[in-house]
Amino acid sequence: MVAASGRRRRWNADDVPDLTGRTAVITGANSGIGFEAAKVLAARGATVVLACRNPAKARDAVDRIRAVAPEGDVSTLEMDLNSLASVRKATDALVAERPVIDLLINNAGVIMLPYGQTEDGFEQHFGINHLGHFAFTGLVLNAVLAADAGRIVTVGSNGHRMGKIDFDDLAFTRGYKPLRGYGRSKLANLLFSYELQRRLEKAGAPARSLAAHPGGANTDAGGFGGDSPARRKVKQVIDRVPNPIVHSAHKGSLPIMRAAVHPAAEGGQYYGPSGLLKMTGRPVLVTSNAASRDAEAAARLWEHSERLTGVTYPI
């Protein structure tokens, strides 16, 4: 978009179009970039479902969204990506009520956890950040395909550049370090997003799969620091202090929203901040590393993900 002065202005939340009649589902939307995205989408008329593991925090998020978007149609869905049983139960409830989903944002995630396993025995970063979303997306995909032009946006991270997937040790029993676990899960997110787009194209499906990352967003990823009123005040102070590699959760949500709603966004694209180290700045098209674009590795990861989750895709 070009400003009156002739200079191209920065894409921002004001560019989100009217979304009346469209349904958006966002995982982990009770705080951080997921909450910021939900707030804007609701204000633009979308029906928004907050898929969260903590019902109390999700209800509080709904109240905060309605404070700025009183007419917003916002509801909650209890889902814990730590448990495939919870994912399946949540999916059954969701598609029964929302048979058409226009926008799915796979946002929830954990970071820098000590070694631990999910309810199903997966390393936590890989199980929650990747496998939980892989299962959820596959189980709701028919509802996305029922939309005129559904979009699936998977939230990645600059951390994917530190990731390496050892297919002989997906349980990460050797050489585990929290940062390696996180990086591996974010690499998996991008491999999944790009492979999903390839499969949608091969099937001739109208839906699109994109990815985006928030850069250095000031959030409570993984639940660290809590989400108390006091913590929010601290975050507000931090957000007002200029920092070349950290920006607000709202600004961090803009690449995700651009991938989700921009008319020109295409399947297989990756959005992120434009500034220093791709940590802050306006939301633009960015590139991910070569490992994330490895189609052979992506297909192999897909096969393992289907086996581990028991979820096969209807395409």
TrEMBL record:
Key word Oxidoreductase present: yes
Keyword Oxidoreductase set for record: yes
Region (Disordered): 208-229
Identification of the protein by name: Short-chain dehydrogenase
GO function terms (MF aspect): oxidoreductase activity
Keyword set, alphabetical order: Oxidoreductase
UniProt organism field: Pseudofrankia asymbiotica
Species lineage: Bacteria, Bacillati, Actinomycetota, Actinomycetes, Frankiales
Highest taxon above the source species: Bacteria
